[in-house]
Amino acid sequence: AQTVTQSQPEMSVQEAETVTLSCTYDTSESDYYLFWYKQPPSRQMILVIRQEAYKQQNATENRFSVNFQKAAKSFSLKISDSQLGDAAMYFCAYRSATQGDDMRFGAGTRLTVKP
Amino acid sequence: DVKVTQSSRYLVKRTGEKVFLECVQDMDHENMFWYRQDPGLGLRLIYFSYDVKMKEKGDIPEGYSVSREKKERFSLILESASTNQTSMYLCASFPSGVFAYQQETQYFGPGTRLLVL
What we know:
The complex is a heterodimer.
Chain A: E1 3-5, E2 10-14, E3 19-21, E4 24-26, E5 32-39, E6 46-52, E7 60-61, E8 64-69, E9 74-79, E10 88-96, E11 103-105, E12 109-114
Parallel strand pairs in A: 2-12
Antiparallel strand pairs in A: 1-4, 3-9, 5-6, 5-10, 7-8, 8-9, 10-11, 10-12
Chain B: E1 4-6, E2 10-13, E3 19-25, E4 31-38, E5 42-49, E6 56-57, E7 64-70, E8 73-78, E9 87-94, H1 98-103, E10 107-108, E11 112-116
Parallel strand pairs in B: 2-11
Antiparallel strand pairs in B: 1-3, 3-8, 4-5, 4-9, 5-6, 7-8, 9-10, 9-11
């Protein structure tokens, strides 16, 4: 079974600085999708960014970008120019492209942004 | 926009009570999921359903059951609530078919925080 590991339970960053959240995963599949979700305090979980495993180019969404290292099974999230609104729990998730529609989530990283 | 709603944001129940958590989505999605979220454990899949009246066990189905009588509604049932079921419960939906893989993401409800005393 696939597993997703987030080794940083908590991270903090100064406003306007850059922070990187780590995620590693274990799979024997070659075709899959990876996601970062954001869950603000008492608010709905929303998708931040996604990466298709067959694409070599790292995904970017405005201030959010990923460093996808397929051979190392690593999928880190970089947040540039951090804002107070970035404070949230961040979850890394994996979904197979061929075997079912369920997702595997990491334990989450709580990001604090200091003004 | 996809909208996934859950019947309660906060719920307090007593040990032994039967508890119903309701989830409704408005995008005609075939797949619906129930997760529980606990600190340090992330989201763990309880049950999912890929069609009306169809259900599959996830990683932690013990103590739970589900019902899907209509496509838009997926209910999670705690037959006899216990204190170790105190948690945040998240519902999600996801379409099937080719379009699903273009979408590639689940849509989540706001969550129900359940406290069992």
